[in-house]
Amino acid sequence: MSLKDIDIPKRMKHYNVPGLSLTLIENNQMIFTENYGVLDARDNKIVTTDSIFSACSISKFLTAMLVTKLTEQGLLDLDEDVNVSLVSWKVPSNAFTENKKVTLRNLLSHQAGIIDPKGSFTELDLTIGTPSMFDLLAGNTPYCKESIEVTYEPESEFHYSDAGYCIIQKLVEDVTGESFQNVVDEFLFKPLTMGNSTLDMKQLATNSEVFSSGHHKNGELVEGKYPIYPYPAASGLWTTSIDLTKLAIELMNALKGESKIGISARRAKEIISPQGGKTWSGLGVFLEGSEKELEVTSLGWGIGFQCMMVLFPNMGKGAVIMTNAELGVHQMEGIIGEIYTSL
Residue 188 gets which letter from DSSP? Predict the structure, then answer.
């Protein structure tokens, strides 16, 4: 993949995007990284290869990779009723769960029968603090004022759900006895040398020089500079385009039986296979096309940030595009889409 017919700095100015980082993949290898602009519109700290952006919902791809690794170790089962291993909180039983139970496969593909309550899963309010997953799922916090429950039969419909990924986080913590952040660090960040990636935003207090600030579509800084989503499995990843590319390449290598972290080709194939009869929904990713033309994407969109990961695993190609501006339109309608179509 290569860039053609696009002046990125000029388009950034057009869209009021202060900073952007781009990494390309060819032949399952990182071949190109370019960084543009600044971390914060109010100063001149330039974006570098070490600059960290909020990946927002691309965190769900990270979570899918972690779950796949844990299934390889026998700690998790994609098709088991999650209530078997959940401890302090369980999915409430009701008429919708009588015939089909909620599974990890359902949760990862947004087909668990769960719809996020209106107005839930907002950014961190420092006056309230970080919620526990138990309180969040039980509806005991301002971040989610209703208890999470199944509202339609699992696998019957698709509804994009942050709550589903919070259940996954709770499950991972229950079966490992560790925080989600620690499990990700052990099984993904360290072995893949993703040293500029974190789910723990306490690092901002000691290393703010490398973190990008978020910006609105008019180019103005968002309140608080660093919008944090206190739901790591759903939207808590902060990373660089290079580190995210390492994770993407790990999936592509796993598909060839060359995983660094011990994911089999069979399980890697599950991630990019249609789930529940929905051709567009994989495990933590979205799909389009098939065979050689199969396109695998993960999109991040939150306050102050937009980003995109796109892979063509059967061609060994891909790209990661991260920006520190939220344009108010779908990625494909802004600068990310223009870069994508120029590849």
Answer: I
Burial 86-124 (b: 16+ CB within 10 A, else e): beebbbeeeebbeebbbbbbbbbbbbbbbbbbeebbebb
Asked if the model's pLDDT at residue 206 lies above 70, the reply is no
Q: Which two tokens stand for residue 17?
A: 């995007």
**What are the percentages of helix, strand and coil residues in the chain, rounded to 5?**
35, 20, 50
Greatest extent of the chain over all pairs of C-alpha atoms, in Å:
58
Please say if the pLDDT value at position 62 is more than 60: yes
Question: Between the CA of residue 39 and those of 17, 34, 242, what are the distances in Å?
Answer: 10, 14, 16
Reading the block at residue 249, the tokens are 């390449």
- Kindly tell me if the per-residue pLDDT of 325 is higher than 90: yes
Strand order in the sheet with 19-26: 29-37, 19-26, 317-323, 305-312, 295-302, 286-288
CB atoms within 10 A of CB 55: 30
pTM for this model (two decimals): 0.97
Residue 272's nearest CA partner among 258, 262, 256 is: 256
Q: Which two three-digit tokens encode residue 169?
A: 């986080």
CA atoms of 250 and 259, how far apart (whole Å)? 6
Span 163-197, pLDDT tens digits: 999 999 999 999 999 999 999 999 999 999 999 99
